[in-house]
Amino acid sequence: MENTVTVTIDGITVKVKPTATILDAAKQAGVRIPVLCADDKLHPYGSCRICLVEIEKSPRKFTPSCTTPVADNMVVKTMTPDLFEARKRILELLLCHHPLDCPVCDKAGNCQLQDLVHEYGLGPSKFTEKKRVVPPNYKSAVIDREVARCVLCGKCVRVCREQNAVGELAFTRRGKESKVSTDFDQQLDCEFCGECVEICPVGALTTKQFKYRGRTWNMERTQSVCNYCGCGCRMVYETRQGRIVRVRSAARNYLCGKGRFGWDAVHHADRLTTPLVRVSGELVPATWDEALAMVVTNLNVIKNKRGADSIGGLGSVRTTNEESYLFQKFMRSAIGTNNVDMLARLKVPKGLNTTFFSGELSNISGHDVVLVLDGDVAELNPLTGIEIVRAVNRNYKKLILVNSGYNKLNRIASCVLEYVSPDAALADLLPALKSGQGTGAVADAAAILKEATSVAVIIPARLPDGTYYQVRELLSLLKGATTYPVVKRSNFLGALDMGVLPGYYPGYQKVSPDVVSRFASAWNCMLPEIPGKNALEMLDAIKQGSIAALYIMGDDPAGSDAGLKPVLEKLEFLVVQDIFLTETAKMADVVLPAVSSAEKAGTLTSLERRLQGISPAEEPLGDAQPDWNILQTVAKKMGSAMHYASPSDIMKEIRALVPLYADLAVGSVWPAEKSPLHGSETNLSLLSDSVEKNDVITSERLLFSSGTTTTRSKELTTVCTFKVEA
Amino acid sequence: MLTEQEKQEISEELKHCERPEAAAIEALRVVQKKRGWVSDASLRDVAAQLSMTPAELDAVATFYSFIFRKPVGRHVIALCDSMVCWSLGHDDLYKLISTKLGIGYGETTGDNRFTLLPASCLGACDRAPAMMVDDELFGPVTPETIDEILSKYS
Ligand code: SF4
Ligand code: SF4
Ligand code: SF4
Ligand code: FES
Question: pTM here?
Answer without folding.
Answer: 0.94
